[in-house]
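Q: Predict the assembly, please.
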Amino acid sequence: MRRKDAMQHEAAPLPIRFYRALLHLYPAPYRRQYGYDMQEIFASRTVSMRPPFGTVVALFMAIADVIPNALGVHLDILRRDAQHALRVVRRSPVLYGASFAILALGIGANGAVFSLLHAVLLRPLPYRDPSSLVMLWLSREPTGALVGNREAERRLARGILTSAHVLSWRDGSRDVFSDVAAVDLWQGNLGTQFDFATGDRTERLRGALVTPNFFELLGVQAALGRTIGSVDEKPGATPMVISHGLWMRAFGGDESIIGRPMTVATGSGRRRAPRTFTIVGVLPREFHFTYPQETEAWGVLSWAEVAAMNPRALALWAVARVKPGQSLDAAQQRIAEIVDRTEPMPAGTPRTKRTRVEPIENWIIGDSRPALLLLAGVSILLFVITCTTVANTLFIRITAKSRELAVRAALGADPRRLVRLLLTEGMMLGLIGATLGLLVALATLPLLRRMVPAIVPRANEIGVSVWIFAFAAAAAAAVVLIAAFMPALRAGRVDLANSLRVATGGSLDPSSTRWRSGLVGMQSAIAACMLVVAVLLSASAWHLAKSPLGFEGDDVLTFEMRLIGGGYGDDTTLAAFQGTLLSRIRAVPGVVEAGITTAVPFRGVDFRRGVNLPGREDFVMGNERVVDSAFFSVMRVNLVEGRVFGPAERLGSPLAVVVSQSFARNLFGDGPAVGQRITVSEQPATVIGVVEDLRYQSLDLEPQPAYYLSSAQAPSELFCIVARTRGNATPAVLAAVREVDPTLPVMNVTTIDRIIDESMAVRRFYTSATVSFALLSLILTVSGLVLIVARWIAERRNEIAIRSALGASAGRLIGMVTLQGLMPVFAGGVVGIVAAFAAARVTGEFLYQVSPREPLVYVVVLAIVGVTGVLGPLAPAFAITRVQPADALRAE
Amino acid sequence: MTYSADDVATLLPLPTPTFHILIALADGERHGYAILQDIEARTSGAVRMSAGTLYRAIQRLVEEGVIVEVAKRPAKLLDDERRRYYRLTQFGLAVARAETARLQEMVKFAHAVGLTPRHA
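A: Predicted assembly structure:
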């Protein structure tokens, strides 16, 4: 018997069989080359070892020998492949430079978008177990003019509660909620906007009063001192917890403030008065309850105080924690049951307000989610295009070096070895690409932080985290898989005869062309789909930009003054104060004109009231705005009929009303409006003028009917100043206001055009991102196309030479080549717009006055794709004119 | 195969196990096991290489052109067709010589400053 048979016999001793098995850790060619000899040496070394002790020693020897050496061999190969890959890169710097740039852009853009998504959507909210926290609401469906108004829908879906709701819901839901807390919040109630005097001015803080269990329910601990807790459920407790932001801003981060008094004016109406609290704690920097504007000062609202509140006043926000094992549905059902029991409706009357249990995450980031998901979708598509472009590049390189591969394979190189070589190349692309991409993403972060609208919750918390590195690693892995595997799989079955034929100038394997055309087609489909969305969004933005406002907001300075509390209680004093204030402001150099209004556009403060025709019970709804005579000229509102307010309107004189055109139509149809009598808040009034409708809620909402009262006749304690200025008069105006009353806080100082601009910020952000990503993908698609056509021509030099020798004109040949490139691009483009059409319902959510199925958009995109498909291949196609028949024949 | 002095120099200094392999192959072709036995005998068992270490070194030396696998073996050695035999190339010989010269030089330097082994 030959020795090899003896050695491979089943009866070989255990250590030898083990060693043989371990040898599989080596690469197959290495094992085939040296395995037998190694096994022989190992056998001769261990032959004298006797079981059981000797066997154990032999097994250990086998492990100690094979594992480190096999690893070493693999590393050697990797190092050699990497060196090879680097040489390859040095040999075609343009091709690889382009690949690296494409990857850096693709991964960088995605990394930046991912860090945004991570900061806003993916990171857990700053509470313990945030997924079990819910907000409790009373929601209403919008009616009348508000139907279809998404902003109003959102607001109405989140109606606040009365104290009676909070108490009965808390007591009746102990089986589904582990706890319920109530908050009296600045967003809803003027009483919790705290006036805090610092230095020479008074600041209005965003405040809240919370039940003692609030912080414990959220699972939040103070960064310094303590939060409000059950110890504060006692009469006379005055704890104050402040946000990290306020601590830094007002107290310079002074750690000794704990235990110090802090006096702020709280309450509303006549009850507003300065009260002294004791600062007991500072909240952690990351803690937020309201987004994007954080609540700054927290006082206690004892349960006894809740029980003593007016049970019919809608005043409280409620947050609850769902018990483990209980579902949202169960909670929802329980609350609905309680309401059915405590507030039964007469039979047959539908309930207008419904209870709603909303996950806190949805409350905080739900509204930003669609835009961010759109961004994520677009960015993923860009990433796919990036990878296919790189795959295409590798692919081209493989066919370009098919001769080398064919020769290697013919010389007996293991096809798996070739696949490995390509994988290493892909890995290198992935690693370098991801590293560059990471750098691009990190460099983009500060820019991104500025670009993301402030209204997106937590957007200011975008930062460098481990996750962005994890993302880059994942992206690198994806690149390796996509960029290396597709070509590598094909290289794994290199067709020798075909490759040699191609390499020596024969015609190309048609399946390889199909692959590359397929990739270009796919890119074209994605690019077309993105283009459709980009064009739709741009059209929508254009419609918005040109939607008539009814006023001119440029150079109009505005700020809010809400006299929540004292001093100006009676109308005479208030009107006199407003008069003094306006005359002081008008005297400031740079102020052209100044007026007063209760509502500034796009600020959400616009009170809807009902007005009657005399003798009629039914109301006609309109937004009531109290303005002075200057308001209309400051805002450049067009007077349609009659007049605006003048000196005739004084306290005590007959009530005058100016109505908007649509309100006049609603009231009087096509009849005359001026001179008509109506009833406003149960007082008779006369219509003195009609003005144009103003777009006041947002750019994408139609103007709502409105009527105007004179601030001289019905002065409001909540008012805003609007001042048309020349140059920067803001500091001087604010100084003038302080001179009139230094204790009055001035809020939200800005300009009207900035308000309009900010209202567009989210839309502008995702529109510009989508447009730029779509353009980028179009560029990538074209570059892929150019590469392919160039390659196609290189492969067909002979065919082209022969055709041209046979008299085909250059133009005809160029046409032939161009058609080659156009076909996949156009076919992909059609697939892409069909996909975009199918997704129209989703896209429609983001559009204004543009149908997501607008045929013109699809035609335009198809035209863009078509033109690209023709122009892209043209540059390389001209290379045809340089093909000399003689050269090609010489090559034969 | 042509080679330059530079080609030789880039391989120096040789790792000790590698030099041992070259020494073992200096007086004729051998298969792997014989190389190990030769080294062990020469060093009285002080140098014992594992099979894995030996063949990694062999693989590298083959790639570097220092040794080659012998295609035709002496008839009397046809005891096992699967054994692989190796011999030094001209280049390998040059490398081994250069390494020897390098070490001699080093020893000379050491002697010059009085570094001599205790029991020499």
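The two ends of chain B are 41 Å apart (CA to CA). The beta strands of chain B are 30-31, 67-69, 85-88.
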